[in-house]
Amino acid sequence: MSIRLRMLLSYTAMLVVTIGLFIISGLLMILAITGDMGSIKHLFANHYSHKPITAQEESVFLDLKYLALKQPEQLLDEDTLKAYDEQLKDVSSALIIRKGDSFVYKTDKLKSIHGVKNLPKFEPSNIHIRDTISYGKYYFSYVKFDFYFNDKDLGSIFVIKKVSPYVALSKNLFPILIGVLLILLIVTNGILNFLVTRSIVTPLSALKLATQKIRDGNLNFKVTARSNDEIGQLSVAYEEMRQRLKESIDLQLKYEENRKELISNISHDLRTPITAIKGYVEGIKDGVADSPQKMDSYLSTIYNRATDMDALIDDLFLFSKLDLKKIQFNFEEIDMVRYINYFIEELSWEFEEQGIEVRFHINENNHELVIADREKLKRVFVNIIQNSIKHMKSHEKIIEFSIENTNEFIKIEIRDNGNGIEPTSIPHIFDRFYRADNARNALTGGSGLGLAISKQIIHEHGGDIWVESELRKGTSIFFTLQYAKKSEGS
Ligand SMILES: Nc1ncnc2c1ncn2[C@@H]1O[C@H](COP(=O)(O)OP(=O)(O)OP(=O)(O)O)[C@@H](O)[C@H]1O
Ligand SMILES: [Mg+2]
Predict the structure, then answer these.
(1) What ligand has the least distance to the C-alpha of 433?
(2) Secondary structure (H, E, C), the chain
(3) Where does the Histidine kinase domain lie (predicted)?
């Protein structure tokens, strides 16, 4: 059963139950008041004609009735009638006696009643004794008794009372009113049903459509919430789910693309040294290396190429483990100033050999602790320094280290006065396999993984890494690390 039908049924049921309960409680109330089941049965049919008259009216009416039956001539006596009329005055009723086609007595109060024409006809059986009549714009309710005067003239007694015009009006309009009320109820029911189902069914249909789209692999649409209610919240949640799904699928596609690119790069980078090794081995086999010097040179080239491959495979392995987040980080608190000093000391021999002057700018009192993994961080420093060494051709080779403390993190700069990087290459140097000079040969060595690995390591530390470089002036690599505990006042 559809929600629309269910709502319609529930509204209708509610309506029927309400009307039913209303009727039942009304009937019970009447039963409680009258104590008579029969009165309920004839309630509507007899309501108007049996409308009870006051005790005063009743007693006057009975007296007059008695007179009409026993001494009808008395009803021609004006004084007697006036006395009765006087009694009726107290209850705002009045007396009319009709004889034949004229009034024998008509109270002064009922000026609007003129002529007997509109009064109900004589009826010897006295069945319809109570009703409502209208004279012009006025309405009157009456009790009537028909009798014969001694001279066989037709006589009628009316105890008559002016009533609100609405009484008669409502009597005539009652069935129409009930009909209109029912129609109104049905229309209201219909409108309510329409409004409620529209606010539920329409967004549900939209969600159904969206689900079908997702099932068919289409995620390029938007689910908009039209309301703030539960259904609106569902739409918002649905839209969030669609966005996440889209993001994750896009990411997957990107990964897939990356994987393909990675495989192609790896095969290229492995093939180059292998081809060279094969060439030299073939040379040896063919007897090209015919002197011990040549043989020595061939063998050392083979060895160097194999070593390069080994290093490349190591880098690849590390890179892929970092990429898959499968590498363990042993974070500890490190004093960066001491760490860099130690690092410089360790590499001092290499710096000396390369003729590099090392400068370390620090604020001596500044011994902020950072959170880092010693080994991985060393890898970052080595990668950056190696690049600097590789790209320094000037006579005066300088590498400078500086530490800057900001409120949120510690910023480390490693600056060289080397060749610098082409501005077009700057955004790419942290990409894997990227080599700015495109020297995919043995001259500069390297696979283009050094900075990609460094970037991953720094990101794992919750930091950032970037470059500033000017051609022929030098390059600065910056990276940030998080404080272990921010000391007071700094
Ligand atoms: N200090 C620098 N001066 C000039 N160019 C640099 C510097 N550092 C990096 N580059 C450029 O950025 C590129 C990428 O560096 P990256 O360390 O990732 O790779 P690589 O040094 O070529 O290879 P690997 O580090 O894997 O041996 C380098 O090829 C180089 O062109
Ligand atoms: Mg490098």
Answers:
(1) 1
(2) CCHHHHHHHHHHHHHHHHHHHHHHHHHHHHHHHHCCHHHHHCHHHHHCCCCCCCHHHHHHHHHHHHHHHHCHHHHHCHHHHHHHHHHHHCCCEEEEEEECCEEEEECCCCCCCCCCCCCCCCCCCCCCCEEEEEECCEEEEEEEEEEECCCCCEEEEEEEEEECHHHHHHHHHHHHHHHHHHHHHHHHHHHHHHHHHHHHHHHHHHHHHHHHHHHCCCCCCCCCCCCCCHHHHHHHHHHHHHHHHHHHHHHHHHHHHHHHHHHHHHHHHHHHHHHHHHHHHHHHHCCCCCCHHHHHHHHHHHHHHHHHHHHHHHHHHHHHHHHCCCCCCCCEEEEHHHHHHHHHHHCHHHHHHHCEEEEEECCCCCCCEEEECHHHHHHHHHHHHHHHHHCCCCCCEEEEEEEEECCCEEEEEEEECCCCCCCCCHHHCCCCCCCCCCCCCCCCCCCCCHHHHHHHHHHHCCCCEEEEEECCCEEEEEEEEEECCCCCCC
(3) 265-485
